[in-house]
Amino acid sequence: MSTRFLGRLRVVEFTEYGTGNMYIDNVTRTLRDDLQTTLHTGSKVAIAASCFSIYAFQELKKQLSAIDELRFIFTSPSFVKEKEDKKKREFYIPRLNRERDLYGSEFEIKLRNELSLKTVAKECAEWIRQKNVSFRSLQKRGGMPMATIVDDTAYMPVNGFTTIELGCERGDNIATFITKLDAPQTRKLLAQFDEIWKDKKLLQDVTSQVLDNISNAYKENAPEFIYFMTLYNVFREFLDDISEDVLPNEATGFKQSVVWNKLYNFQRDAALAIINKLEKYNGCILADSVGLGKTFTALSVIKYYESRNKNVLVLCPKKLENNWNTYRNNYRDNPLAQDRLRYDVLFHTDLSRDKGQSNGIDLEHINWGNYDLVVIDESHNFRNGGNVTTDRDGNVRENRYARLMNRVMRAGVKTKVLMLSATPVNNRFADLQNQLALAYEGDDAQIDDKLDTDKPINQIFAQAQKAFKDWSDLSQGDRTTARLLEMLSFDFFELLDSLTIARSRKHIEQYYDTADIGKFPERLAPVSRRPQLTDLPNAVKFQDIYEAVTNLNLAIYSPSIFIQPSKLDKYLTPAELEEFGKGARGARNGRESGIRRLMSINLLKRLESSVHSFRETLNRVRAYIATTIDAINEFEAILAKKRIGEPEDNQAGKKVKNFDFSEILDFDEQEDPVFVGRRGAEIDLADMDYVSWRKWLASDLDSLDNLLLMLKDISPEHDSKLQMLIGDIRDKFEHPINNGNRKVIIFTAFSDTAKYIYDNIAEPIRERGMNTAIVTGDTVRSTLKLPRNERLDFNKVLTLFSPVSKSKDALYPNLNAEIDVLVATDCISEGQNLQDCDYLVNYDIHWNPVRIIQRFGRIDRIGSRNAQIQLVNYWPDMELDEYINLKGRVEARMSAGILAAGGEDNPITPEEQEDLEYRRSQLQRLHNEVIDIEDMNTGVSIMDLGLNEFRLDLLEYMKQNHDIEHTPSGLHAVVPATESNPPGVIFILKNRNPEFNIDRRNRLHPFYLVYISSPIRNEELGMRNGEAMRNYELGMRNEDGTSIPNSSLHIPNSEPIPHSSLHIPNSEPIPHSSLVIDHLHPKELLDCMRKLCRGKSEPVADLCRQFNSETLDGQRMDEYSKLLGDAISSLIQVKDQSDLGAFLDGDADPFGNKIKGLDDFELICFLIIK
Question: What is the mean pLDDT of residues 65-78?
Answer without folding.
Answer: 92
